[in-house]
Amino acid sequence: MDRAVFGPAGSSEAFSQKYKSSLMAPAYLEAFGLDCFEYQCGRGVNIGRESAEKLGEEAKKHNIKMSLHSPYFINLSGDGERVEKNIGYILASARACDLMGGDRVVVHCGGLSGRTRQEAMKNTLFNLGAALDALDGEGLGHITLCVETMGKINVLGDFDEITEICRRYERLLPCIDFGHLNCRTGGAVNSYEAFGALLSAMENRLGRERAESFHAHFSKIEYSKGGEVRHLTFEDDKYGPDFDPLGRLLAERGFKPRVICESAGTQDADALTMKNIYLNYLKEE
Ligand SMILES: [Zn+2]
Fold this sequence. Notes:
- An eight-stranded parallel sheet has the order 1-10-7-6-5-4-3-2. A two-stranded antiparallel sheet has the order 8-9.
- By secondary structure, the chain is an alpha/beta fold.
- The protein is globular and about 50 Å long.
- The chain has helices spanning 13-18, 25-32, 49-61, 81-99, 117-137, 159-168, 178-184, 192-206, 208-212, 244-253, 267-284; strands at residues 5-8, 36-40, 65-69, 104-107, 144-148, 173-177, 215-218, 221-224, 227-231, 258-261.
- It contains eleven helices and ten strands.
- Strand 8 and strand 9 form a beta hairpin.
- The chain binds zinc ion.
- Zinc ion binds at residues 69, 106, 108, 148.
């Protein structure tokens, strides 16, 4: 699609009250006016082959682009035996994503585990290279890993680290989580100027093609000194960030990210709010 697309992370409260199975998600999201869905495997990749394939068929039928969020316990900053396990979780995520007809897997780099940021970065780069080789080895090279910017300060994944990782491996895409970046900067990523600077920096570092098709997470998130505290909904008017200036920038600059809303419970409604804001700006272009 030649514009930004919008959808939720996992099942909203409204969806879960109506339906038991996420197999209904694609039909529901299409009727809701959304474009994509990020399947949540944060606690582990537990979906069976048959369910994943069925979900993929539904997604295809209802024109819903699929991505998958890999387990939160993945940590790429280490070395030794545990790394192999973590690469195994990435592979399992990519397999499930492929069965769903998806094309993107979101990955967290993980905590520093007592290492300096430099050491953690060095290991993460090495381990991501190994993960990409492992994907190729299983014929899953068409699945794009999206490396996410994180909300807690003591975790690898600020904006510079993520764009540097993506600069090193041209097959990776950044998953820019604007709420996370707002958290770790104490509220500084919440304006037309701040969002614009990030989009420009991404384009400078990664080139136009990759920058314009980036993966995005957007939700309002409470923060304290250490960064992220909890995900909120668009009802929040204290922490932000506010999507409006970003929607305007995406339309003005012709960026076409896949924007996943991670609001706490209202992720479908809030994704639609973002889509409508963006489409209104797009009309003016
Ligand atoms: Zn994430």
